[in-house]
Amino acid sequence: MYGSGCVVMTDIVKLPFDATEIDDYNYLDILNQSTIEELVVNKNIDTIVHFSALLSAVGETNIPLALQVNCRGVENILQVAQKHKIKVFIPSTIGAFGPTTPKEKTPDLTVQCPTTIYGVSKVIF
Ligand SMILES: NC(=O)c1ccc[n+]([C@@H]2O[C@H](COP(=O)([O-])OP(=O)(O)OC[C@H]3O[C@@H](n4cnc5c(N)ncnc54)[C@H](O)[C@@H]3O)[C@@H](O)[C@H]2O)c1
Question: Where exactly are the transmembrane stretches of this chain (predicted)?
Answer without folding.
Answer: none
